Amino acid sequence: MSPGTGGLVLRLVVLGVVLSVLQIAAVSQLTIFGANADLLPLAVAAVGLLCGSMTGAIFGFAVGLFVDTALVQTMGLSSLVYVVAGYGAGRLRELRDPQAALVPMAVGAGATAVATVGYSVLQFLLGVDAPISLLLLRQVLVTIIVNTLVAYPVYALTRRVLLPALPDDPRRRRRRAYATGGLSPLSRS
Amino acid sequence: MYDKTVRRRRAVLALLVISSIVLLTASFGGSGGVSSVQRGVFEVISPIQDGASRALKPFRDLFGWVGDTLDAKGQNASLRSERDRLRRELADEQLTMSENAQLRRQLGLNRKLSLDQLDPVQARVQGTSTSLFSQTINIDKGSADGLRTGQPVMTGAGLVGKVSFVASGAGKVTLLTDSTFRVSARTSTGVTGILKPASGNPDDLVMGGLAARDQVTKGDMVSTRGTDPAARDLPSLFPPGIPIGTVTGVDDPGTDTQQVHVKPFVDVRSLDFVQVLRRTGSGT
Fold first, then answer.
1. Which DSSP letter does residue B32 get?
2. CA of B144 to nearest chain A CA: how many angstroms apart?
3. Which residues lie across from B264 on neighbouring strands?
4. Span A31-44, pLDDT tens digits
5. ipTM of the assembly?
6. Which of A87, A116, A81 lies closest to B24 in space, CA to CA?
7. Sign of CA dihedral B263, B269, B273, B278
8. Does the domain made of B121-284 have the CATH classification 3.40.50.720?
9. Start-to-end C-alpha separation, chain B
10. Among A142, B45, B97, B113, whose CB has the most other CB atoms within 10 angstroms?
11. CA nearest A68 in B: which residue?
């Protein structure tokens, strides 16, 4: 375990527990156009974006396990979809390292889509009596839209919590590229 | 070095996915071990949820107030017409009730439903899961307070659901809008059937099992039926007379396949307190 890992793990545990409790105790009761915001796939995606695929996947697994336990649901269901969401966001960072300001929103929307659609598919496979209906599609769509709107604040919060424990902050990394010989697009003209 | 990192990453991903699937299989198959662990962790988490729920109530109320104000404007006109209709019905009902009271006295019957006899206990809602697939709430009362699975849960507005899981100090309630929920129901005109959520739309309940001669009209009240007198060896979990909702429409009326759509009285998304009826007896 590297020196900074302990601090990062502690911060991830606190972040996961606080956001899960907030989601269960408050956000899930706030209905917007028949659906709720879901902070958890956003947090998992944000952790994936900031810390990489392995941390994202492990964080997703742990958060899913916590939620399934707290709501006395079928265990492993949320874990499975959040593992995929966290791993996907982390791989995006490792392969592309996107820097655009809208990336957290796009990744949040993608993670929400993976989580809601994946959860629905797994429920159908388990035989839950809720066939594909216009209401289900509407709920999935509204959840994705609402989550897209709140993705940036969740990303900013996650980043603020994790930043002191991160070995390489994306913002610092980008600045370093200009300071060590990389040419700014403006200087080429 | 790179290959080692890639291998490790893939191994961790595979381990997490396999763990999830194993947990899912064990949990869905009703494994006692998984259930025990879940119960233990639920006991620990429950007070945290309770504290968070209390602390965040002003925030929820503020958000709910904004939403309710917008909804109220839209509902105003329809509620006025409903009020006028209910006033007329109330006048009829009062006449019927006075006649009914006289008959009861004459016959020496006093089987009126009394909640106090059903040993109700008030519980605070700690957490909610209201996705289309799992409509449940967590409450701050459990087996230590006398709760058992299957006990009916209600509010002043009507039926909420039934207790489906209990730990020592907390419990889980499956809402009447959950896809697994079923209850024997009766309309205000005496028509009986089985009520369940409409497939894919938990805000709409559907009453089926009606005969072609059964006539149900929009606006009829629906309440729990209690135990079917013809099936006393299969008592209902729910006592008779708990209000459930109002009839909003009938599909294929006058046929054996007619289905009655019911809008529940209780808004399951804004529950703060519920009552659990601990002594349901035979549901009569």
1. H
2. 18
3. B245
4. 777 778 899 999 99
5. 0.81
6. A81
7. positive
8. no
9. 73
10. B45
11. B38
